[in-house]
Amino acid sequence: REKEQLSKDVTCEVVAAFIPVADNLERALDAAEKDGGSKVIKEGIEMVYRQFKDILKRLDVTEIESMGKKFDPNLHNAVMHVKDERYGENEIIEVFQKGYILKDKVIRHSMVKVAN
Q1: CA of 39: how far to CAs of 22, 29, 45, 57, 65, in Å?
Q2: Is the confidence at residue 50, as pLDDT, over 80?
Q3: Rounded Cα gap, residues 38 and 34, in angstroms
Q4: Phi/psi-derived region of residue 16, left when phi > 0, alpha when psi is between -120 and 50, beta in every other case
Q5: N- to C-terminal Cα distance for the chain?
Q6: Can you give the pTM of this predicted structure?
Q7: SS3 86
Q8: Tens of pLDDT, residues 65-100
């Protein structure tokens, strides 16, 4: 059991180091889309991003579902709050940065905007 926990902790540290790479790839994809960037560059970035996500999946790392969900301080970090009657109480209406979890251990909390 202790060995399993140590393994989980090490995997979380390694994955946490690579998550910013995924963030930057997503930003590059968005920029290439908005600026009419080269189709070849965009396809290359998409290929690397898919590969990165496949590696996370093999390590049992998943994205924390946030958009439209109820705020959970164990999974989410609320960096903005707004009052908007179109949304429910403590409903996440925007995700600024995706969070990741390994089985039951949070690697990085989702950075979100919460309504009401």
Answers
A1: 19, 10, 10, 27, 30
A2: yes
A3: 11
A4: alpha
A5: 41
A6: 0.74
A7: coil
A8: 999 999 999 999 999 999 999 999 999 999 999 999
d(CA 43, CA 58) in angstroms, rounded, equals: 23
Task: Determine the residue type at 49.
Answer: Y
* C-alpha span between 104 and 31 (Å, rounded): 33
Phi, psi of 43 (to 5 degrees): -65, -40
Per DSSP, what are the bridge partners of residue 80?
A: 113
Burial code (b: 16+ CB inside 10 Å, e: under 16) for 27-56 equals ebbeebeeeeeeeeebeebeeebeeeeeeb
Please give the backbone phi and psi of residue 22, each rounded to the nearest 5 degrees, phi first: -65, -40
